[in-house]
Amino acid sequence: MKREIITTSDGSKTIQIVDWDEQYHSKHGAIQEAYHVFIKSGLSLFRDKKLSLLEIGFGTGLNCLITLLEAPKFNLDIQYRGVEAYPISSEELEQLNYISELKAEAVSEEFQRMHQSPWEKEIEITANFRLHKQQEDFADLKDSDAFHLIYFDAFGARVQPELWTETIFAKMFTALKKDGVLVTYAAKGSVRRAMQAVGFFVERLPGPPGKREMLRATKKIE
User: What mean pLDDT do residues 65-73 have?
Assistant: First the structure.
């Protein structure tokens, strides 16, 4: 499918799947969305610990980069797993402007290493941040009781409804530790009901720019 780089409303770029009219990040602001959904509503819940984090949809690496930038504020040592079925190309990476937009020149080399590192192997990005990228379909995930936090950043249910089903969320529930949290930009009623059906406690939260609501799901076990 045809892919092109577009500029979102906050000046940061993302990739658009032209045939689907679907973007890797919100066209209302890629960086704003990442901070609101994944940092404010997810990462900031955790303090002073070793955190195991799973991202469903590693994509452009924006969420990973921002997590690297924000982790020291919460005194977190992070083991980051990024799952992606279709990695972006080096040509696409060169057109993304996250380092300049975030004024994050100090971690420019680390961002490049995130993308250039081999798949299926854990590497050290910094002393307190390790990354393991997996190139596989989300449905093939087999982890159990492994993660404190999941960033669920798959393409939307409008274009890939099979990624937003009870079957997928059951795998996410199993992959999380007790009291683990999943955050996503999605807010559809069908998504919320699928999460609840597999055992999640689900909250509706205010959404990022351009969206009224988003969802946060917690694995609460008595």
Answer: 98
Cβ contact 172:166 at 8 Å: no
Q: In what order do the strands lie in the sheet with 147-152?
A: 122-126, 129-134, 76-83, 49-56, 147-152, 176-184, 213-218, 201-206
Q: What is the total count of domains within the chain?
A: 1
pLDDT at 146: 98
Q: Is residue 5 part of a domain?
A: no
What end-to-end distance do the CA atoms of the chain give, in Å?
Answer: 46
Q: Which residue has the tokens 């055992």?
A: 199
Q: How far is CA 167 from CA 48, 117, 123, in A?
A: 33, 31, 30
The one-letter code for the residue type at 1 is M
What is the band of 221 on the pLDDT scale with cuts at 50, 70, 90? confident
- Name the amino acid, one letter, at 136: E
* C-alpha closest to that of 55 among 34, 72, 71, 32: 34
We report the CATH number of the domain holding residue 209 as: 3.40.50.150
Q: How far is CA 125 from the centre of its chain?
A: 17
What DSSP assignment string belongs to 10-71? TS-EEEEETTTTEESS-TT-HHHHHIIIIIITTGGG--SEEEEEEEE--TTSHHHHHHHHHG
pLDDT in tens, 146-170: 999 999 999 999 999 999 999 999 9
Model confidence band, residue 69 (pLDDT cutoffs 50, 70, 90): very high
Global pTM?
0.97
Q: Which domain range does residue 126 map to?
A: 30-218
Cα gap 16→33, rounded to integer Å: 16
